[in-house]
Amino acid sequence: MLDTARLRHVDKPGGPNSTTKENDDMSRRRSIIGVLTVIALCMGAIGVTNAFAEQTGYTLHECVAKETGGTKVLYTANCAEKNTGGTAETKPIVTEKPVEVAATGTSSFELETTIAGVEVTITCTGLEAMPKVQNVLTGEFHHVTDEGATTFTGCTVTKPLKSCVVANPGKAKGTLTTVNLKSDTTATGSTKFEPASGTVFIEIEFSGCTVSALNGTKSVTGTAVSARETATTQAFTATSGSTLKFGGQTAMLTGKYHLATTTGGSGTLLHLDKAGE
Which residues contact 207 (CB under 8 A, 6 or more apart)? Predict the structure, then answer.
């Protein structure tokens, strides 16, 4: 007699066990599709995050004629003031393309320190420089760099005695020129200036001082930092972050300047704006 207990049960196509297998296969396919979907969403999120992350830091913008139908903020012809009926707008200077510009003082400049126990203030009526600046993208951070010397003009000793005269060693009196400086903007839009090589920022020779300890050549070392006061104005202040030393003593530099396309500030102004604006 046939022992039916030993017979293997085989499902017919469409039988109950077959249905279970199909369901398992369907579940596996859905799981795989779900995993792939999550991966795709994550990659998309990373891409979006990177796109926004790139809009950090500051870039230098030039003044251009407004575009027809544009939606940007409008300015007067030289981009000095906002004007809803203006004829100009700003756009970023091409990244990694050095552009020669003019830095011009918009106030007087003062360098204050103490030498041999005597408080000293040098006041200059102007600032001139023709640096080559460029917008730079480092990783996800936008910043502006330049390199060149800066000249302060109309310089006199206003404290303690006006009998003192200042100059670069062996140069014309009343004019002070720094060494070659390099600068870079920070995440807050400030600009940090430091010697391109070495530690000396500028050398100043005093002569004619009634306080003999003041006479002679003294070095200013360290870095100067100007804070972004507005899109077009940078200011050296007591709290802007400078770390200058004058003859080994702490020194403070104050004064304001802007960048323009021509010397004397008669051309169009350059704007330091947040990246992406």
Answer: 164, 165, 167, 215
